[in-house]
Amino acid sequence: MRNKIWAAILFCLLCQEALAEKISRISILSVLRPTQITVTVRNPGPSVLQVEGANDRKTSPLSDGAVVHMKAHENGLLVNDSTFPAISVALRCKNGCRLIVEVPGKMHRLYHGDLELNAFNNTINIVLLLDTEELASSILASETGEFREPEALRAFAILARSFLNSGPLHPERNADVCDSTHCQVFQGFLPSKAISRAVQSTHGLLLTYHKKPFQPFYSRKCGGRTSTFEDVWHHPAANYPFFSADCPVCRTTFRDHWRSDLSMDSLQTAIGIPFDQIQKSGGWIEIRSKGEVSKYSVENFRILLGREIGWKTLPGNSFDMKPNPESVVFEGSSYGHGVGLCQTGTEGLAQLGKSYQEILNHYFPNTEVRK
């Protein structure tokens, strides 16, 4: 009888979730490849833990302060002291849970939302379910630390919401997006009052092309001119023909310059092969080794060095490269891939009095903001 009562409560919570304006599913902490986690409930209202096994489903109440331990198993997840692996686990609360998720020895973070968990490639796949508007606000809190202008925040609020509505990017994890730079950075931060006003004042607005939302890219700083999608990834974009837009505010007002001097030994270690010559040709890095030439797109080369040496090695993919006998000098002023909206330029245009519609039209020509 008791399980039936809690099953009914869970059903009501699910109904409330279905009636919410829109729920987004975000894969969290996957870059840490967690094999065990601890979840602490910080929710005074009704909360339930649902554990689904191969042959049964158990639902139990959780009180404020309850702790749930989970460990990846070859056949699922081990929950608390259970010796039988679960296929899936869910934590749900009225109006969303407040949860501390800890990956032992690596990270702990506070989140608001419900959780769904399952095993994925011998790790724990953690998916947070959160109202889309609330998620957009938290993304802005992570992504717009240097923004001060209200119109810049409004432009970015529409951009973040449009990205979330462009279709699932991680179906393999049963998630719409992830919390890393692969999609949009999300750290569970609470928004400032300025961010909340920007999201509320643009509620439900999307950036569309031919009346359909698409995946709008953005980067921190383009260095003076944005890149096209084909410039960076060498194939056309699926749903929008990204244009190259002039960004003089980024080039003249917000001056910044970086330089990296890398030894040949460190480059060869990072690339994984000894080479005789390295040069930049258009959007490619060409490496000659024993008479054979290997080509990397500039963006893939930047990511390779970032993973092997550090992400500050090549902050952006718009740079000059000068090989020396013992080293290679890289110099540039961009940060990120440079496609779509330039965050630095957006703040500058807002300071010049441009509206969020004018800012979005500048970086995304032939688009329309629609409800």
Description:
The two termini are about 45 Å apart. This protein has about 375 residues and is of the alpha+beta class. Strand 8 and strand 9 form a beta hairpin. The chain has 10 helices and 23 strands. Strands 4-3-7-10-11-1-12 form a 7-stranded mixed sheet. The chain has a 5-stranded antiparallel sheet with strand order 6-5-2-8-9, with no helix packed on it. The protein has a 3-stranded antiparallel sheet with strand order 14-13-23, covered by helices on one side. The radius of gyration is 23 Å and the shape is globular. The longest helix is centred in the N-terminal third of the chain and has 18 residues. The protein folds into 3 domains: about 130 residues, no CATH class; about 110 residues, no CATH class; about 80 residues, no CATH class.
Structural class: alpha+beta
Strand order within the widest beta sheet: 4-3-7-10-11-1-12
Q: How many domain units?
A: 3
> Level of helix content?
25-40%
Mean pLDDT: 90
Instruction: Write down the overall geometry.
Output: globular
Distance between the termini: 46 Å
| Gyration radius, rounded | 23 Å
Low-confidence stretches: 4-20
Percent of residues in beta strands: 25-35%
Number of beta strands: 23
Main beta-sheet annotation: 7 strands, mixed
Number of helices: 10
